[in-house]
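User: Hello! I'm new to structural biology and keep hearing that structure can be predicted from sequence alone. Could you demonstrate with MerR family transcriptional regulator? Please show me the input and the output so I can see what each looks like.

Assistant: Of course. The first part below is the input, the amino acid sequence of MerR family transcriptional regulator. The second part is the output, the predicted structure written as tokens.
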Amino acid sequence: MGYQETSYKDKKVISIGVVSELTGLSERQIRYYEERGLIFPERSDRGNRKYSFSDVESLMEIANKIEDGVQTFEIRQEIKRGNKKEDQRSIRKKMLKGQLNAQFGIQQNE
């Protein structure tokens, strides 16, 4: 069990054309959001952008915020704060797990 199971929502398998159809955003808008650091697609061996379902959801949220007048800078700051909170939650969870394992004498093989 040495690999991390990725949720289907986080697998980067969707092309920019399909993302454009799903979101109603132009490919140019999607690339702009990437340039602004709001979305992070992976690249195929041929250099094509690949997005996940989670990315599609994020793009929809970004588009809604921009429609409401929120600036891309503000959205990027919000994303950074969200990532920081998620990192902190992850660290707390690992610490708690370690404490419980130590309390009950459970050995973890990683």
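User: So the tokens describe the shape?

Assistant: Right, they're a compact way of writing down the 3D structure. Reading them back into a model, for example: The chain has a mean pLDDT of 85.
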